[in-house]
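Cast an eye over my tokenised protein here and flag anything odd:

===
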Amino acid sequence: MKHSKISYIALMLLIKYYLADISPKKAHMILYFKGIDITIKSIHVYYKKFMMILNIYVKDEMRNIMLEGPVEIDECMIYKIKRGINRRGRLGRIRTWLFGLKCRTSSRIILYPVLERTRTKLLQIILRHVRREALIYSHHFVNHDYQFVS
């Protein structure tokens, strides 16, 4: 951002709009009415840079979090609907598993998208973020079709 070709004020406004989840198109319109001329293509480029910076920050920050006290662990599957129709004539779905840890005292949460839900992979995550003396609460198995909580 050091060699940015836009003004400091425009950059700060773009950061503000990005964090407020304002679309690049809407940000372009707002900036235009404020008399700041930035192309929509440039706004997309800056939004991608902001996303990269935030991803690096979150990964670095999450790597250093150590949860104290009792910790709850759980996993869930989330879906993303793909556009278009697959070979069988249905909308495609992308399946992603999330593994989460939550400290009961501080309410701090850590989420990991996981490709493998093997014992060793999940244990690596737990050992990285939970103190050895901490209590860990887990639901062994819950079929949410029949009951919400075990």
Residues 71-138 form one domain. The longest strand covers residues 71-85. The chain is about 40% helix and 25% strand.
